[in-house]
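Submission sheet (multi-component)
Chains listed below:
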Amino acid sequence: MFTSLRTRLAALVFRRAADAELDEELRYHIDREVERNVAKGMSASSARDAARRAFGNVSVTQEQARDALRWRWLEEVRQDVAYAIRTCRRAPTFVLTVVATIGLGLGVLTTAFTFFDAYVLRPMAVRDPGSLYDIYWHSRNGEGHRFTWAQYQALQERSTVGQPFAFAILVARMRGQPTIGQLVTGNYFETLGISAALGRTLQREDADAPGGVAAVVLSYDTWQSLFGSDSSVVGQRVVLNGVTMQIVGVAQKGFGGLESVPLQFWAPITMIGLLDPSRDAFAPKPAQALNIIGRIRPGVSVEQTNHGLLAWLRSITSELPSPQRASDVLLTPRGRAIALTPEAIAFFTPIAIAFLLVMLIACANVANVMLARGMARQREIGVRLALGAGRARLIRQLLTECVVLSVPSAVAGYLVSRATINLGLHAMFASVPPSYRAYVRPMPLTPDTRVMAFMMAAAMIAAVVFGLAPALQATRPSVVQATRGDFDSNRRPSKMRSALVVVQIAASVLLLICAGVLIHAARNTKRLSPGLRIQNIVEIDLLDRSRTRAIDDLGRMPLIRSVASASSAPLDAIFPGLYAGPVGAPPTRIKFNIVSPEYFPALDLGLIRGRNFSADEARARAPVAIVSEATARALWPGRDPVGEKLVLSAATLESGRLSRYHSATIVGVVPNVRAGWIGLPTDIPVVYYPQPVDAAGSTIVARAAGDAEQARVVIEHALAATDSAAVRDIHTAEASLAIQVYPFEISYWIASLVGGVALLLTLTGVYGVLSYLVAQRTREFGIRMALGASPASLIAVVMSQLLRLAIVGLATGGLVAFGASRLFGSVLYVIDTRDPFAYGVGLGIVFGSCLLASYVPSRRAATVNPVDALRADG
Amino acid sequence: MPAPKADLLQGTLDLIVLKLLRAGPANGWDLTQSIQVVSKGALDVNYGSLYPALRRLEAKGWIKGRWGVSENNRRARFYELTSAGQKQLDAERQAWDRFAHALGLILRTE
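Outcome: structure written.
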């Protein structure tokens, strides 16, 4: 079996040598025959003739011998490839057009796939990533819950999930840089099978008891970037949130945790009380601060595990009031950066469609070029058909041409995708507000085998898509017609070509409308008023131990107008919610913020009714409240809420730190604001409770006299002078707003890019098709001209041909976009998916571009010289 | 008048080549001579079909060709039987015997 394979392969590879051997062998045979004939007494020449006659047809023997030795089809493929390369070499412009078009489409598509691969497909490089699930649960009142330390320990005793470990995300400054890390249980590294590149990882003893060991493990990247790959880093001390920690090791290269953002350090979870007091999972009334990830046990289904967890959670919450009992458990796979949940699929599908459409447009372009070329090659194809070539063989040969073209196209696509990724990352970093830059940490985007395989497959499929239809069409002409030299009798544009143009125009319209919708949404978001004055505002997260002194320092700084504090900074995150209502009424969901009296004037939130908190009320955290207009309208419609009582629901009282405000008297009403996120509508009810300016765990909101960014720098330096760890985080409110608008801007840029590429491809497609049509009808135009047609009427002939296609395309694209908007409108509530501006712009641009693209070819038609045209060989 | 020459049955050339090569390596010319001598001139081998057959057998791995020097001191390609070819020969010979026996029985019955 193997010798046979080897012989055949050798024959294929050393084709010339094998042929030469055969020749020599046959020559030997004939020579011997001649010798024998001569020995019999024949003359030399007649001996040779006789030998030849006896042997028969030498070349037929050669052919048969060759066929016997090789795989015939492989030989044919070889011929096809050689022929295709020869053909391509003769038409460099054609090759360049195809390679550039497919390369562009494929490059854009591969870029999208690279991101998808890095976040969704690539399994985390840890032990058995597929069995890791994140556990989250809801209580009957709909609130989401994580776990306390006691609950984690109870879960560890049970066998419901395998090897559970707990963690909490921690944002802290390390060596002056904002970093993101994780507080983890001692089994974290062992469970994930991660070793240390230097020193050791965290072990069980590190996180045995509250307080724990002040040890920290750095990620390899952080060790390189913040510590300059210092090999003596183990044993050094760093300060995290004011706590001195000892570096015990560096994790293995490439490990960045299980989050969608690569993590930079790990410390024992038992340190959480010191590092982040507001989330102390070990306090007498512990916070549910722990995320738990566990393994689905082998042979146990996710559903069974879910049932087991729910039963356990129901049993431990059975003593609580009904709304706080467990109602359901959510298990999310964590083996990849982004789990492919139904929501994720709903999110990625339209994006994937958009990128595929670009590729489709590129393919349509090339198919059109191929069609035109197929027409031009009818003489060649006709002759080959006449000489007895099979249609299947011809189609195979034309397809081979496409596949041969797909190789340089794939290379071009690869280069385009690397360039866009590098450029994109660069642009992404450049456009992030500086104080947030440290948090923008993309997953590694190096192309892996999956990306390569995807690209090759896409290039091959594209080759078949753009090659098959033209191949079928090109081989259709009858032999008679072709040999007569009558190639342009089929003068009407083929249906297929028209269909391709219509599809292109429709897809372009669709993509440009999407881009328009996003562009408009991004611009609107930028112009949205958060409902308060954020200019000149600096937000500072302070370490509690130096809070009092820092506030004093701030108060003495001449460039600071006022200092306020709030449990939630105006635009850092969506405000937390509570359930409350007037006495006797059912509680409703309201967002809340606990603020010092200075908060309202600092942010220009003037009181519409009533008064601000007094200093005494703030100091005592008195049971008083200020509500937003929306709250007043929702709870006390048509009445003045000042003087009314707002009563917290039992569940809210049980779960939080709000018991002081159990029954609060409304003292004032302020305008509506966006409750922490720019994407929220302004009419969400908000209630404010009082706190002193130095309340622990709150964010300082300082109003500067001048530019906030300058003030930020000054403040950071000044506060660091007294305590280098005092500032946990500092940024301007405008930076907060910018980072909230950022995703919209990014999607706007991506949509514009995709729409732009689509438009460019469609333009060249329309231009190419019309140019070809004009060239094909040159003789006809010449005759019309000779008969007295005006140039304008000829332009009209060409343009009207396009117009018909354009109108069908525009209508189709517009309708599809409208249909899609009905589908997605409900999901994306920030975005007006039926924005008339976007539709107008999208349709307008595509229509205008089509006219522009058709103008040059129609001018050419109008300037045809009748004499030349009539002489020209059709 | 010489006896009419018999045409080769389809596929029998392969069997003949294998059988002749069992005696030892031989080149194409030797094989054509042997066939005529052994069959006493009764079989007419088309030389043109011998060489494709040799290639076919080689591609199947039953024989192996290598260049050597012929008795008149010229470079010639010699073929020898491989062990796979030996097995094939045995199998085909048995099949032929069975076939010839069966055919003989049929032809002898009146």
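Remark: The mean pLDDT of chain B is 80.
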